[in-house]
Amino acid sequence: VLVRANSNKAMGIITEYDVIHAIRKHGEDIMSMKAGDVMAVDLVCCRPEDTLEEALRTMNLHKIRCLPVVSESGNLEGFVNINDVVRGQMKTIIDSWQAKKDTTKAS
Predict the structure, then answer these.
(1) Measured between alpha carbons, how far is 68 from 78 in angstroms, rounded to an integer?
(2) Beta strand 76-81 with 66-70: parallel, antiparallel or unpaired?
(3) Fewest C-beta atoms under 10 Å: which of 29, 79, 82, 106?
(4) pTM confidence score
(5) Helix (H, G, I), strand (E, B), or coil: what is residue 72?
(6) Alpha-carbon span 86 to 4, nearest angstrom
(7) d(CA 83, CA 35)
(8) CA–CA distance, 9 with 25 (Å, rounded to integer)
């Protein structure tokens, strides 16, 4: 979940990991906590024009599984998660393998 200020500016993000960590640390008290108490404030984003490879590098570098996609003007365009990247890479690998297989059959 992207946490935004009244100005619509991204302030942080709350991920599954953040919630699990907060539950371990605070137990049932988490239910009365505010988003700002749990969110990660070092927001790492990618741009709509970034490739899946660039998104994966960013995720690996920062050890995260989800990236907000933010335009130059700062608008949230969506999210890319590790599953999206893996699906995209698998399609590329399968297409490449199929093309090699087709080439081999034609020979």
Answers:
(1) 6
(2) antiparallel
(3) 106
(4) 0.64
(5) coil
(6) 28
(7) 25
(8) 28
Amino acid identity at 16: E
3-state secondary structure of 5: coil
Closest by CA to 45, choosing from 34, 32, 54, 35, is: 54
3-state secondary structure of 71: coil
Q: List, in sequence order, every residue forming a beta bridge with 80; answer none if it has no partner.
A: 67
How far apart, in whole angstroms, are the C-alpha atoms of residue 12 and residue 43? Answer: 6
- pLDDT tens-digit map of 66-88: 899 988 887 888 889 888 878 87
pLDDT single digits (tens) 12-61? 888 888 899 899 999 989 899 998 888 888 889 999 999 988 998 999 99
Cα-Cα end-to-end distance for the chain? 52
The whole-angstrom distance between residue 46's C-alpha and the CA centroid of its chain comes to 9
Residue bearing tokens 């994966």 = 56
